[in-house]
Structures are given as C-alpha cells and as structure tokens.
Amino acid sequence: MNTISSTVTIFLFISVTATFFITPGVSKPSEDATLSITEFGIKYGHSVKEHDVVTEDGYILTLFHIPGKTKRSILLMHGILDSSDTFILRGNLSLIITLANKGYNVWAGNTRGNKYGRRHKYLDPDTDAEFWDFSFHETGYYDLAALVDFILVSTDEQSIRTIGHSQGTTANFVLLSSRPEYNEKIKGFIALAPATFLRNVRPPASNLAKEGPAINRFLKSLGIEELLGDQLAASELYKLLCSQRIFSYYLCFLSTVLPIVGIDPTRIEPEFWEVIIGHNPSGTSRKSIIHYFQLIFNKRFANYDYGPVENFRRYKSLIPPSYNLKQVTTNVSLFVGQNDPLVTVKDVDILRLMLPKDPKYHLMEPELWNHIDFIWANDMDVYLYPYIFSSLQDFE
Questions:
Q1: CATH code at 308?
Q2: How far is CA 70 from CA 101, 107, 141, 289, in A?
Q3: SS3 call for 189
Q4: Helices (H) and strands (E) in the chain, counts
Q5: Active site annotation includes 279
Q6: What's the CA gap between 251 and 88, in Å, rounded?
Q7: Catalytic one among 78, 137, 362, 371?
Q8: Whether the Cβ atoms of residue 158 and residue 151 lie closer than 8 Å to each other
Q9: At what angle do helices 2-21 and 212-221 cross, to 10 degrees?
Q10: What does residue 50 show for φ and ψ, rounded to 5 degrees?
Q11: Rg (Cα) of the chain, in Å, rounded?
Q12: CA 40 to CA 50: how far, in whole Å?
C-alpha cells in the first residue's frame, strides 16, 4: 500500500500548500478555460452542432459536429478522464479547427462516464452503481460503434476515418477486433499513442498498476464507482488548487502530471495549463482505470479480468480472452512519442507485429515528445499535423 500512501501524501501536500499560497478568485481565469466546445467553435470561426447518440445498452452520448465543405467525415475520440473538448483547447492550433479549416467534416465523440456521457435511458449515474459498470471495452464495443453508425446515417457516407488518442485508440482496436464488420465502416484509423500492449510502462504508472488489486478493493469498500467526475468535489478541489497563479503550474503540472506522461516542460506553457484545468479531468469509472492497470500487470491486451470464477462464467475461460487484432484489417497509422512512459516505443512495436496489414508508422522526431503532446503541444502544426494529413491522404 506504499503507493497509495504516497499518493495521499502528495495530495494532502498540494492541498495544504496551495491553501497557504493561493487566494481563490485573485487570478482571473483565461476565457478559453471556461468556454464550451460550441463557444470555442464560434470564437474560432466555425459553427458547432450537438447531437444525442444512444448506444445499444442505453447510454446517451453527446456528439459534436463541425460541418465541413469539401472533404469526408473524421471522428475524433479522446483519452481517459478526458472529453471531446481536448481537441479544441488550442484554438486555431487545435486539431478540430485545423481539420475544419482544411474542409473536413469533423465529428468529436464522447464516451460514457465523462461530462458529456452521464446520461442513460433508465439508469441514474448519481444513484445506480450499474451505470458505472463499464471499462474501455464498452467504450469501444458500444460507444464507438453507435457514434460511427450515427455519422454514416447522418451523412449517407459509406465509411469514415477516425483519429484516436490514448483510450480513444483502445476503443478503436476493441471495436475493430471484436466487431470486424466495422473495418468496412472505418476505412482509416490514426492512432496517437496507441494504448493496447502496456508491457513496458514506466514508473510511476507501473508502480500504481502493481497496487491495482489493492486500489480496486479500497475504492469498492468506499462504494466509489465514478472517478474524477466533472462535478465531483475532488475534481472541483483539484481544479481550484491547480488553476491559481503560476505557482500551481509548477506544483500541479511540472511536479505531478509530467512525471506520469513524460517530462517535456516546453510544450505546455503556464497560460495554457490554466485552459487545460478548466476542462479536465472529465470523469470515468473505477473499472476503466482498473482495466488499464490489468493490461500493465498482466502484459496482455485482453478483456476485463474478473477473477477465475467470474471469468469462466462470462468467457468460458479462467483467464480473459485477448483481443484478436488479426481481425483489424482497415488501414492504420501508428504515432508514438520517444518520451512517452505510458505508451512506449517497445509496446507499439509489439502492436505493429500483431496487425495483419503493415501499418503506417511514425516515431515523433522531438526526443521529448510525450503522451499529452499529441493533443496539446504548442508546436503540433510543425511536428504532428503534416504526418496526420499525409495519413489521411493515404486513406483516400
């Protein structure tokens, strides 16, 4: 339990220190820290439409649409604890605005459990624990499938292209391997930091994964199923402590976030950190976090591990089945950062060997490029976008 104790100690240190140094309300938040994705679009020259998409199992997800003029539809899928907002936070430099300016028909999806996915036809996320009984498996098998089908019906297109970051890539690989008919509906998939095999994850995330079973028991004993939801008190406190003055940038970002995602202090400046905190974290389920811990600890890209007895009941096997990546026959482009401790070059090399069609592969040139630089770096237009557009052209 040493890792848990250390985490609690760090959080208490942040709370006490920030309370001493920070006076709430002194720092006026950046405008972009408070804008909705619709307001972002208007500010940067594009209209944004909102749609409700209902999954097969009753979850209601918000799908944002930035209409394009000349090119095909692209669906963007965010990472864990994130939302569709992530792709527009950089304004004119963001992926959404960049694609829209190029004429693409842009769709930004959300998964169950984040701030745009806390609705269900029958379940109440505040009172029904069943609402939170999901991991990234369901985000791929149900959520992504529903979003893709909605876009195809809405546009009368035969297929779309997808771009995923982190968990957004996991969802794509789950869908394409579990429901192979979607390989015809997704004709090209760009995977930014593809999170599948996580055998070589580095500390501190690897240390947390070792404590995964203990963390899981601890959370379940407290009845905690939703983690870091947008409206939860813990998230509100975190956003308050980490959005005030430049002091919080050094304490919350440089000292706490960067060790997890990769030390690269030059691509996220203090002013933009304030924008990030205004929109993140956005919530997920306990089970989603634990499923990733299982990938790290068990060193397999596999279904959720419920334990031998429940596994046998669900899967007819004592261990959860691996996802059959040989079923992924669509065109795939893999992007990996040399300084990403979560999705490492070694693990992406394993993924490359598992795919039946040789994927396009791009190792990011800056040596310090990390896990979150794919969505928030201040030089994405130089080091990332040219290769994204090259992949999209190959998908035509």
A1: 3.40.50.1820
A2: 10, 15, 30, 39
A3: strand
A4: 18, 11
A5: no
A6: 25
A7: 371
A8: no
A9: 60
A10: -110, 135
A11: 20
A12: 13
Single out the residue of 83, 116, 109, 96 nearest to residue 47, CA to CA: 96
Give dist(CA 334, CA 47) in Å, integer.
30
Alpha-helical segments (H) within the chain? 2-21, 37-43, 95-101, 136-138, 145-155, 167-178, 205-210, 212-221, 233-241, 245-248, 258-261, 270-279, 286-298, 308-315, 345-354, 373-376, 380-383, 385-395
- Does residue 51 have an active-site annotation? no
Return d(Cα 170, Cα 302) in angstroms, integer: 11
Q: Give Cα 28 distance to the centre of its chain.
A: 28
121-134 pLDDT, tens digit per residue, is 999 999 999 999 99
Q: Which of 87-91, 144-148, 225-229, 351-355 has the lowest mean pLDDT?
A: 225-229
Q: Which residues contact 330 (CB under 8 A, 6 or more apart)?
A: 176, 183, 186, 187, 188, 189, 357
The DSSP symbol for 84 reads G
pLDDT tens-place string over residues 10-28: 443 333 333 333 333 444 5
Owning domain of residue 71: 2-395
In contact, 56 and 278? CB cutoff 8 Å: no
Write the CB contacts of 132 (distance below 8 Å, at least 6 apart in sequence). 113, 125, 225, 226, 285, 286, 287
3-state secondary structure 324-337: CHHHCCCEEEEEEC
Q: Please tell me the total count of domains within the chain.
A: 1
Overall pTM surpassing 0.85 (yes/no): yes
Which helix (H) or strand (E) is 250 found in, with range? none
The least confident of 35-44, 108-117, 171-180, 228-237 is 228-237
Instruction: Give me the catalytic one of 166, 235, 282, 391.
Output: 166
